[in-house]
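Side project, low priority. Logging it here so it doesn't get lost.
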Amino acid sequence: MDAAELCWTPATELVGLIRARKLSPVELTQAVLARLARLNPALNAFCTVTADLALAEARDAELAVMQGAPLGPLHGLPYSIKDLNLTKGIRTMSGSHIFATRVPDVDPPFVRRLREAGGIMLGKTTSPEFGWKGIGDSPLTGITRNPWNPATTTGGSSAGAGAAAAAGLGPLHQGSDGAGSIRIPSGFCGIYGLKPSFGRVPTWPVSNTDYSSHVGPMTRTVADAALMLSVMAGPDEWDRTSLEAPPEDYVGRLDAGIEGLRVAWSPDLGGLRVDPEVAALAREAARAFEGLGCAVEEVQPGFADSQELIRLLWSTHEAGNYAQYLPAWRARMDPGLVACIEDGLRVGVVEYIEARGRKLAYWDSVRPLFERYDLLLTPTLSVAAFPVGRLNPEHWPQHVWDWLPWASFSYPFNFTGQPAATVPAGFTPAGLPVGLQIVGRRFADLTVLQASAAFEKARPWAARRPKLD
């Protein structure tokens, strides 16, 4: 297999080749690093590349194979970590001038697990400043571009992870999702992204966003995501919000099928605006579930209104976390983030507590649907990727900081903590990817993975690649 094909080969195949001594971890790592060096200047998927560390880890991995040592489930496989998440001994900037030189001395639990499973760290992927918005640019690390059309956004905030997976810059990428930040770039970049149940993947420090932030895999195939999640998931004492239950057998039970499941399809969640070409592709993709043996029914869910609520909570959380930096750093921060923080500072404590109560009660409007249905399908996003440099598409309402309306399918399931994935559903006439969102019942991560795998088998997507070489 030549170097180019190695970069597109799924992790589940690579790990078998390495174990069989048909592929050297060094050869694989060199191939990915060479591709990264060639493409990253144009895409800006990685803000920090740890080439020397990766090659050293690859040599150690190769030696372990040759000596017959015990091998972890990710032995010799390259992976990346989002720049928002701490990494021991590796610069973690959070896309901000404020932390441009920060080098942590600790790994969060999921990073530690990826290392211990034998993965090869490639570096850190780009994010907007503190992950505050759903597009991919930062005042420190610049604009991240979509491999399908570099004039368009990757989405965010896991912008670099989305671009890296779509461009063949390694098979395994970690993202985080507080209002759609795994699903938005996965949808825009035509890859698979899974936001697991809240607490499924433990992290540290625990995000101060009121139980909304999830960590999960971003990959080109569902099986790769299942493999990565099986390593990252499970309780950890560092994170008291982590779920007590150990992960299910995501890899072994992935292909069990979904025949007989009751599936709801909602084209607009009861009134959200959706661009017609996106709506048509998502509807067609949802029909595939009928062929998979599911009973599919179109629904109008009747969820409580969440748009005013997310705007208030988003701005107050940004203010609570980052207003402290305004006196010294305002001029070097993202102006949209500054405006968001300033709006949050205008919210009184009583108004915030009332809003938090509405968020806690939001589940009561969502729960009845999932008492009737095993899965909910929706478009992942209301739009396809739009030009870089914009916070909102030109044909949508403009705002100094509010990007949330075109991502209104995603954040409700951060409120509820449910698992939600995006699968590639097709391409617009302009050649831009569109995603279908698959939402599961509380804690039903395995069901979402199985549904994703069944859809992937019926409508495979990984063979279609952006024209970059």
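Brief comment: The mean pLDDT is 98.
Revisit when time allows.
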